[in-house]
């Protein structure tokens, strides 16, 4: 539908150009009659027709060619101000003008179509290449990251079921715990893969509403048991307003960031809240807007500036030497979910060393809710 609307707009603009450009050109050329002969005048019209053909298409060029031929005949071919042509050379010049104009217009139109097809083919090839890379990475993930926890859970269950093993209560508890942890890891991996697929297809539609960030953070910390003892939530220096977000998705974003920090550093993790001013988007009007920033701070090795955007791509595990850290979807999902809610996620250096992930979400409700609904409809 959008493509047909663009074609319709181009067609109407082309007809308008075909109707108005030749008369305007005639007025200009009429003032230069004493300096230009008929050949020069015809060439000027021909240049204009080439431009119309390139920008507006074949139909507009044909209309402009016929219209220009009539104007040239009436104003510049003797006897002027009539449609009669006295000289044979003038007849030849006018006929040649029409033939050349139509030929050039058709060539230009064909060239434009070929160029557009080539551009479209290149874009499709790039999409296919990206999809192929994604499939390759997904197969690599399935080959190890999904099979490993499944194999561990299966081994634990088979050991529990095997009558040859005389297991104590402690051993059974350990095996059940291992199976539970492995299945939990498998569930998270599958959920990450499904959410990334939904994000990339535009099927994920956040439910935006006012959310208190200080209520979401403790739940996000609880979602990462391995890091719970290392996380410190610092009180905000001032009242932090609610943000416009999806409560569950915001919790997921913060949990992913906390989990990522816990995987790559043994240092304490700090979470800070503050308000800031950001440039307003087109949807919210001109001026500035208040945002709430949540910082997940670690004091680990950090990430080189050149690699900071790469870690937000799916299946990227910067610095990992094996697959123990998962499929590398945590940061990609965190940024994708944040942007789906109308926020931003950016990395910063931690003073003294380390990495700080900054989640900035819009404060307020009415304006951002309208913007969010518009974004959902666009998707």
Q: How much helical structure, as a percent, in the residues?
A: 55-70%
CATH architecture classification name of the largest domain? 2-Layer Sandwich
CATH fold label of the largest domain: Heat Shock Protein 90
SS strand fraction: 5-15%
Category by helix and strand content:
alpha+beta
Q: What name goes with the CATH superfamily of the largest domain? A: Histidine kinase-like ATPase, C-terminal domain
Can you tell me the residue ranges where pLDDT is under 50 for at least 5 consecutive residues? Answer: 281-285, 318-327, 366-379
Rg calculated over all Cα atoms: 33 Å
What's the overall average pLDDT, rounded?
76
The secondary-structure element order is: HHHHHEHEEHEEHEEH
Strand count, sense and closure of the main sheet? 5 strands, mixed
- Global shape: elongated
Q: Look at the structure and give the CATH class of the largest domain.
A: Alpha Beta
Number of strands: 7
Whole-number total of structural domains: 3
* Strand order in space, largest sheet: 2-4-5-7-6
With helices defined by DSSP (H or I, 4 residues minimum), what is the helix count? 9
Terminal-residue CA separation: 15 Å
């Amino acid at each position: 539908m959008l493509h047909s609307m663009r074609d319709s707009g181009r067609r109407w603009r082309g007809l308008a150009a075909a109707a108005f450009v030749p008369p305007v050109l005639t007025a200009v050329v009429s003032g230069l009659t004493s300096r230009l002969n008929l050949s020069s005048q015809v060439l000027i019209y021909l240049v204009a027709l080439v431009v119309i053909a390139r920008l507006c298409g074949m139909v507009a060029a044909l209309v402009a060619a016929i219209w220009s031929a009539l104007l040239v005949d009436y104003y510049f071919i003797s006897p002027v101000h009539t449609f009669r042509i006295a000289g044979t050379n003038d007849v030849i010049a006018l006929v040649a003008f029409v033939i050349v104009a139509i030929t050039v217009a058709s060539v230009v139109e064909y060239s434009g179509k070929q160029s557009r097809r080539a551009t479209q083919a290149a874009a499709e090839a790039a999409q296919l290449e990206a999809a192929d890379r994604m499939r390759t990475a997904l197969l690599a993930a399935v080959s190890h990251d999904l099979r490993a926890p499944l194999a561990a859970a299966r081994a634990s269950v088979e050991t529990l079921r095997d009558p040859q093993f005389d297991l104590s209560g402690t051993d059974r508890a350990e095996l059940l715990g291992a199976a539970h942890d492995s299945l939990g890891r498998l569930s998270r991996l599958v959920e990450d893969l499904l959410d990334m697929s939904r994000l990339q297809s535009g099927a994920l539609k956040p439910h935006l509403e006012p959310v208190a960030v200080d209520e979401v953070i403790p739940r996000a910390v609880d979602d990462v048991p391995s890091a719970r003892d290392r996380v410190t939530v610092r009180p905000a220096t001032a009242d932090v307003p609610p943000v416009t977000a999806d409560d569950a998705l915001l919790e997921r974003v913060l949990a992913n960031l906390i989990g990522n920090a816990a995987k790559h550093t043994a240092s304490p993790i700090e979470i800070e809240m503050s308000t800031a001013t950001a440039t307003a988007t087109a949807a919210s009007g001109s001026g500035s807007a208040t945002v709430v920033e949540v910082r997940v701070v670690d004091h680990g090795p950090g990430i080189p500036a050149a690699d900071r955007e790469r870690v937000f791509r799916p299946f990227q595990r910067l610095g990992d030497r094996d697959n123990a850290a998962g499929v590398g979807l945590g940061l990609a999902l965190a940024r994708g979910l944040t942007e789906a809610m109308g926020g931003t996620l950016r990395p910063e250096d931690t003073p003294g060393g380390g990495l700080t992930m900054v989640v900035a979400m819009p404060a307020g409700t009415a304006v951002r809710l309208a913007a969010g609904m518009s974004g959902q409809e666009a998707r």
